[in-house]
Amino acid sequence: MSAAAPQVEAIELRPRRRGLPHGWRSLSVYLFVIGLVIFAAAFADIVAPHDPAQQDIVNRLQGPVWQTGDWNHVFGTDDLGRDTFSRLIHGARISMRVVAIVIPAAVLIGTLLGLTAGWQLGKVDRFVMRIVDVQLAFPGILAAVLLAAITGPRLSNVIIILTIFLWAAFARLARAETISLRERDYILAARTIGAPGYRILGLHVLPNLVNSIIVLATLQLATVIIAEASLSFLGVGAEIGTPSWGSMVAEGRKLLSIKFWLVGIPGLAIVIVALVANLMGDWLRDFLDPRLRRSR
Amino acid sequence: MREHFLRLIALRLLASVLVLFIVLTLVFFMSRAIGDPAKLLAGTDLEATREGIEEIREKLGLNDPLHERYGRFVWNAIQLDFGVSHRSAQPAMEDVASRMWSTIQLALAALIFAIGVGVPIGVLAAIKRGSAIDLFGRFIALIGQATPSFWQGLMLIFLFSVALGVLPTGGKGDFRHIIMPAVTLGSFFAAGMVRLTRSAMLEVLDSDYIRTARSKGLREFTVIRRHALRNALFPVITILGLYVGDMIAGSIIIETVFAWPGVGLLIWSSIRGADFPVVQASVVVTASWVIIANLMVDLSYTYLDPRVREATV
């Protein structure tokens, strides 16, 4: 047995990673920021110092604390005297609600259709891919504006439209992976012993997809947050009067020249959350799915 | 090989026509759902009697069965006839056509900005990997992809129009009017360009033929320009076609922020004004642009590099 010893040593020459994986500290920062936003969204009623809809004409258009020194309204008030900080916290709730429905729905629909298309090929595949083509050719924002014209601005419209326009990415991913796997030996073996399609897909194909799906879903977080904000900014997103980050920017727009912060603060909130979500997606991709690393 | 390629073109063309047909159908039913055009046309004044509305319906053919109206819509759409705009009383297609040039100008200017800024930063970042410029490039790319364009537009307006007073806040006029809309629309794509160029360059620089070129004793500049850049730019250029859809979607937001009189602003205002013919014409036109762009991308992938196509299917 001693003859084998040098070989083992040669393998051990590669430096073993000790303790936490590289970049763990940055991940904890991302998780902290995202966690904070989710916490604020979940407990908005308790965390927010004021009622987001409460008007206070006497204290309207107050600057943020670094201009006024008034900690009662940390980020100042808008033209109706509503507290910007409280509206920001309640706005997080809207963003998070959209994300929490759209992403799982898109993952579920996209993955199921992608797996089916890649497995069945032929007519089913062509049909699914044609739907993908149609929506690629039909800008989602047009659909949102049309739908809002029919029903008036509604958050449920935003959720439906974003789901419709996001599932395709997951469908493409699942389909491509299924096609590349379906002729592998272990899949062929499973087919030979008569395993039904859903069992093969669920037991042998899906596990290979999970990492890529998690990465893609994280990278879509920022897309969803920015899309909701953009639609609310255009007035076709959240209901009128709701404190969404996008509609806060839209409301502050008319006062841009005199009260910069009314536009600056909600916009910065979007940028920070989107940035952290993207950084976390990049981190997860490097960690879970090294094959995608080169597209960095 | 040639025959195979022609067959492929025919198939892709057919698929594109089918997609366009589905878009037409969607547009038809969606705009029907917005409301009764006859009532909207008649207005809210008391003179809009029941007979008046009925008369308009008869004139517009709204009383015909649905399939007849649908057939007529498709047949007219093929001839680029979407009816007359309720607001301008001109053929809807003419309204759209007169706005098209503004949107194309904006998109081109944004594209030039995206390439002009994104590609050089991406190339430098790849050549000097890990350096300050690499970090800067990645920072720009990250920020660019996390910033909503409507907010960026407003921030630019605040900085250059309100604070510095050097650029107009919106509208169309001389050269200065297009700077901010183009930069705002272009930055998101510039961010993508940086990432894409950088990764394509890194991959190419790692290849054998670059080592060969270097070992021949070529100057580094020649190696980069003649050997690396040419190969790295190929995927970058072809991916541009995929940006067309995003650009059109983006132009709706940008045009409303900067009051840029393009198709995006027209779509926005005609939906608000329930001007169906114009809504239909502009949605079909923009969708066609995207379909044509996708078709070209698809064909160029297949023609130029089958490997890329396989990778993107």
Record keyword descriptors for this entry.
heterodimer; A: mainly alpha; elongated; B: 313 residues; mainly alpha; 14 helices; 80% helix; disordered C terminus
Helix content of chain A: over 70%
How would the global form of chain A be characterised? elongated
- Number of continuous helical runs of chain A: 12
> How would you classify the quaternary structure?
heterodimer
- Gyration radius of chain B (Cα, Å) is 24 Å
Mean pLDDT of chain A: 84
Main sheet record of chain B: none
List low-pLDDT spans of chain A.
1-10
The number of helices of chain B is: 14
Q: Which radius of gyration of chain A do the C-alpha atoms yield?
A: 24 Å
Number of strands of chain A: 0
Estimate the strand proportion of chain B. under 5%
Order of helices and strands of chain A: HHHHHHHHHHHH
Largest interface: A-B, 42 and 49 residues
Structural class given helices, strands, pairing of chain B?
A: mainly alpha
Element string of chain B (H = helix, E = strand)? HHHHHHHHHHHHHH
Helix-strand blueprint:
The complex is a heterodimer of chains A (about 300) and B (about 325).
Chain A: H1 5-12, H2 24-42, H3 44-47, H4 65-68, H5 84-120, H6 122-137, H7 140-151, H8 155-181, H9 185-192, H10 197-234, H11 245-253, H12 260-288
Helix pairs in contact in A: 2-5, 2-12, 5-6, 5-8, 5-10, 6-8, 7-8, 8-10, 9-10, 10-11, 10-12, 11-12
Chain B: H1 2-34, H2 37-42, H3 50-60, H4 66-78, H5 92-127, H6 132-146, H7 149-163, H8 176-205, H9 208-215, H10 220-240, H11 243-258, H12 263-272, H13 276-304, H14 306-312
Helix pairs in contact in B: 1-4, 1-13, 5-6, 5-8, 5-13, 6-8, 7-8, 7-11, 8-10, 8-11, 9-10, 11-12, 12-13, 13-14
